[in-house]
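Single Protein Entry

Contents — chain, fold
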Amino acid sequence: MRIVLAIVLLGALVLLAVARPAAAASREDEARVTVEAVLDRLGVDRARIKSIYIAPEGFGQDKPVHHYIGWVSFTDCKGNLAIDLTQTNAVRTIYTTGDCKVPGVD
């Protein structure tokens, strides 16, 4: 009986370990969708974009990601467009760094 219980508990732990990264990936995918929508709303020319990186923020060992920031790099300037999201992927702030300019963003 103890062996069966131990196997069941071990199985549950394995399932939790597998589900946690999948949930984090899903939240990151949702953040990426929000960042893409903001880019569309701002009318950013996609040919100008070098890369988009979704960075987890406020996380620690064995703790979930608190929120994400989308960092958009451009081919025509040094710097980024930053799109800071809340836990629910609502846009908190949008700003540029370096010499990058995006119409409608300070």
About this structure: Residues 2-42 form the longest helix (41 residues). The helical segments are 2-42. DSSP finds one helix and four strands in the chain.
